[in-house]
Specification:
The protein has 391 residues and is α/β, with parallel strands linked by helices. 40% of the residues lie in helices and 19% in strands. It is built from twelve helices and 14 strands. The strands form four sheets. A five-stranded mixed sheet has the order 5-4-3-6-9, sandwiched between helices. A five-stranded mixed sheet has the order 12-11-10-13-14, sandwiched between helices. A two-stranded antiparallel ribbon has the order 1-2. A hairpin with a 4-residue loop joins strand 3 and strand 4. Helix 1 crosses helix 3. The two termini are 40 Å apart.
Length: 391
């Protein structure tokens, strides 16, 4: 006698959470939507969509507002993220300066409630300062659901601990998220800065809707983030993406990692600044360097050419290895040196295999590290609702 086949049972609660996550992702991608548009984009029945909307409204995550678009007849209503009920704090840790700010779920950073300050000299001083700034934001808003912390270097995403940070050694072996959470009593999650930057570009920047792209950041070190098949490549414990520590000159300059001749020493804004300052005979900051170049008082032609050559090698390497549809570059240098972007792309074309280069669009990134920290926390919140659906 054949056993009676068991019918598959879908847990209603999980299905509801998956629908809520889908609705959030659609609003992040498309902005405010009518109920009808949201139902159509979700591909579910109107009654199910209505239950999903009701749940998100009850959570305070979204709100329904009158459409600002003028038209004949009754004005329509739009669903959007709540500007007052759900907010996140973003924290950016960097070698020279740190940032703390508040944002709504749609990536609108508050210029009135943000702080930019020199990076403190010790880890304890760093945590003290972060506690002070974040607590001010918590006192300002009772609707903050968590704090996303973007930090450079090797970060174990499972342990939430910085393992080794070549450009911010004070965090080595520490868990800034947990240390801050213990003081504040609010969830604080650490994200490796390139993974956060990738999420920020996908949620709020030029990578919206893209499943296969790469992003390079060259502002301080040289980091890489890659989305493939709609998923962020994090590596075994979240430590993937250290492109800047490939050796390109065995007799090159000392890197913060302890090695010599790393790619980021010759293909990053900070590396360029260090090289020019050494030849100039004075330690410059990036703002002073930019002013000297733009006023014609400094013309580091040799250093610019070298920077462009090595950056092109970095771009070519990413395109050859990952075959992304888009490669985004986050940097400050493009606003300082006329023609630097075009020159670098021309060199990259020569150093890249033809088919993958032609298959890739190289674009300046629209996101930034601040949006990356915010996006990381939003992604974490969505993961608490329901797991991401496989593509």
């Amino acid at each position: 006698m054949n056993a009676k086949p068991q019918s598959s049972r879908v847990q209603p609660n999980l299905l509801r959470k998956l629908n809520e996550r889908m609705a959030i992702e659609i609003l992040l991608k498309n902005g405010p939507c009518s109920r009808a548009d949201l139902t159509r984009l979700m591909g579910i029945s109107p009654p199910t969509a209505s239950k999903t909307v009701a749940s998100l409204l009850s959570l305070g995550l979204i709100e329904e507002v009158e459409s600002q678009q003028s038209s004949l007849g009754r004005p329509g209503k739009l669903l959007r993220f709540s500007a007052s009920e759900m907010q996140v704090v973003g924290v950016v840790l960097d070698a020279r300066k740190c940032w703390v700010g508040i944002s709504t779920f749609d990536g609108q950073l508050s210029s009135r409630h943000s702080y930019l300050f020199p990076t403190p000299g010790t880890y304890n001083a760093l945590i003290d300062t972060l506690e002070e700034k974040v607590r001010e934001l918590l006192n300002y808003s009772a609707s903050i659901i968590g704090v996303g912390i973007s930090t450079p270097g090797l970060t174990n995403s499972v342990q939430q601990k910085t393992i080794f940070s070549p450009n911010l050694h004070m965090t080595d072996g520490h868990a800034p998220g947990q240390d801050l959470a213990n003081r504040l009593g609010v969830e604080c999650i650490v994200f490796q800065e390139m993974h956060a930057l990738s999420l920020g570009e996908r949620l709020f920047g030029a990578a919206q809707g893209l499943d296969d792209f790469a992003i390079i950041d060259i502002t301080t070190g040289l980091g890489l983030g890659v989305f493939s098949g709609g998923r962020l490549i994090e590596g075994h414990h979240g430590m993937a993406g250290e492109l800047g520590h490939i050796t390109v000159d065995i007799n090159g300059r000392l890197c913060g990692c302890g090695n010599h001749g790393c790619l980021e020493t010759v293909a990053s804004d900070e590396g360029f600044l260090s090289h020019v300052s050494q030849n100039f005979g004075e330690q410059l900051d990036f703002e002073a360097l930019a002013q000297l170049i733009q006023t014609g008082k400094l013309q580091p032609t040799t250093e610019i050419r070298q920077y462009s050559e090595y950056l092109a090698i970095a771009l070519a390497s990413v395109i050859n290895i990952f075959n992304p549809s888009h490669l985004f570059v986050h940097a400050r240098i493009f606003d300082v040196i006329d023609g630097f972007w075009q020159q670098t792309i021309q060199i990259a074309r020569k150093r890249t295999l033809g088919p993958p280069f032609d298959d890739c669009e190289i674009v300046q990134a629209r996101g930034n590290k601040e949006l990356g920290a915010v996006a990381g926390m939003i992604e974490h919140y969505m993961n608490t609702l329901a797991p991401a659906l496989e593509k």
